[in-house]
Write a structure and sequence with these properties.
This protein is mainly α and about 300 residues long. The protein has two domains: about 190 residues; about 80 residues, no CATH class. It has four helices and five strands; from the N terminus they run H-H-H-E-E-E-H-E-E. Strand 2 and strand 3 form a beta hairpin. The two termini are about 100 Å apart.
């Protein structure tokens, strides 16, 4: 049971929460991960049960072989004891009766043949008993070898279980380190975005209508340095009309003149299409196309 607990831990409910921001993950993703976890857990328990059943079957076979070998050994020892008993009784009979005072040659020959046959029988029985004993000893040795192999396999399995537990500990430690790294990375990215937003705001505070986009955020969360000029959210180089482009230029030049403390005249072309210019303290030369004027005419406003 303890091995089953180690091989199949329970579902960790904290896995449904983002380790970086603490928000709940999508329910579909959490359910998918839970289903995969449960499937892996069921497969692990099935394999563990199969291993237990196979080990129990092997143990039962070893016990049966050991008992059979012990039984054969007892039979061999019994046969040996019977042979020794018959031999002893034959010797006692010879001593008790003694030689026939007037022996008959036929009786002697018959007795000799019977004794030889009995001796051969006893010798064969003893040989068979010895062979059975050796076979039984070999079977016992095989059983002992198999038992030693099972014990070694059990020790190896225990070492593997200890190794698995150590690796799980390493996994938990590395997971904690990964979560801490993800948290610090999230904080760093948040700091960079806040700093970029603050920098853009500080730059744009110096301008009246021009706005500068200094950073572009990717879908992955990273930032890329850019420099895009905007006016009311419209990019300068795409859909911004001519009048707005002129006012953005006046705004930028005016801000630079204020920063460096210099005043330089500004020349504005195609002023006939501009309704109003952005106020500035610098001198502005407006170039206007007039159908009534055939020659260049300068006026002071």
């Amino acid at each position: 049971e303890e091995e089953a607990k180690l091989a199949s831990p329970d579902w960790d409910e904290t896995l449904g929460t983002c380790t970086a921001c603490g928000q709940q993950l999508e329910a579909a993703k959490v359910e998918e991960a839970r289903a995969a976890f449960n499937a892996a857990k069921a497969e692990t328990l099935r394999l563990l049960q199969e291993a237990r059943d196979a080990n129990a079957t092997r143990q039962a076979g070893l016990v049966h072989a050991r008992d059979a070998a012990a039984e054969k050994l007892l039979e061999a020892e019994h046969a040996r004891d019977v042979a020794e008993e018959v031999h002893d009784k034959a010797g006692e009979a010879v001593v008790a009766h003694g030689p026939d005072p007037e022996p008959n040659i036929d009786d002697l020959l018959a007795a000799r043949d019977a004794a030889a046959a009995r001796a051969r029988t006893l010798r064969d029985d003893a040989t068979t008993a010895a062979m059975d004993t050796r076979a039984a000893r070999e079977r016992v040795q095989m059983v002992l070898s198999e038992a030693n192999r099972v014990v070694a396999a059990g020790q190896a399995a225990q070492h593997q279980a200890e190794r698995v537990e150590k690796l799980r500990g390493d996994q938990r430690r590395l997971s904690a380190e990964y979560e801490e790294g993800a948290r610090q990375l999230y904080l760093c990215e948040t700091f960079v975005r806040r700093k970029a937003s603050t920098l853009e705001q500080r730059v744009n505070d110096h301008f009246a209508v021009a706005r500068f986009k200094l950073f572009k955020e990717h879908q992955s969360g990273g930032l890329t340095e850019v420099c895009e000029t905007l006016c009311d959210g419209v990019p300068y180089n795409t859909n911004l009309n001519h009048g707005a482009q002129v006012n953005v230029g006046i705004d930028i030049v005016t801000t630079l003149q204020n920063h460096f403390g210099r005043r330089l005249p500004m020349w504005v072309d195609q002023c006939e299409s501009i309704t109003s210019l952005l106020p500035t303290e610098a001198q502005v030369v407006r170039l206007v196309v007039s159908a009534a004027d055939q020659a260049l005419r300068a006026t002071d406003e």
